[in-house]
Structure formats: C-alpha cells, structure tokens
Design a protein that fits this description.
3 helices; mainly alpha
Length: 93
C-alpha cells in the first residue's frame, strides 16, 4: 500500500512539474510575440486593431494551456501560426 501511494505521489509531482514548465515556455513565447506586436504598432507597420486581434488570440492560447485543456505541443503549433501571422501583417504580405 505504501509503495503504491509513493508511486502515485511521485507521478503527480512529476506531472505538475512538467505542466509548470509548459506554462512557463508558453507564457514566455506569448510575451515575446506581444513585444513584436507592440514594436509593429510603434513603428507603424501594424494597426492597433491588428495588434488587438493577435494579442487576444495569444491570450486565449495561453489561457487554455494554463487551464490544462491544451497540450504544450498544440499550443506551440498555434503560436507558430500566430508568429507567421504577425510577420505577414508587419511586412504587408
């Protein structure tokens, strides 16, 4: 009984640690993308409306990861799409 309990606790701690790392990575990516968007607004290559849409989408992705309803892999895939969208909007493509 004690071994089973210890294994369960160790598994839980490992899962929580991995989830925290995923949250931190996604949070950092969202912050970086927000900085890129603000740079685009400041230099005039993006409108504030475009920036608001991109930032709202990034926030939804971040919230789903933090709530545990989306995996890190899926979030990274969506953030990659968002990054390409930021590039296209900043460069007029």
């Amino acid at each position: 009984m004690n071994k089973l309990f210890l294994v369960a606790v160790a598994t839980f701690i490992t899962a929580m640690t991995c989830n925290t790392f995923a949250q931190n990575e996604v949070d950092q990516r969202v912050q970086n993308q927000d900085a890129r968007v603000q740079q685009g607004v400041n230099n005039g290559t993006m409108t504030q409306g475009q920036a608001n849409r991109v930032e709202a989408k990034d926030q939804r992705i971040e919230n789903r990861v933090n709530n545990g309803t989306e995996s890190k892999r899926a979030a990274n895939r969506q953030l990659n799409r968002q990054s390409r969208k930021i590039y296209r909007e900043k460069h007029g493509n």
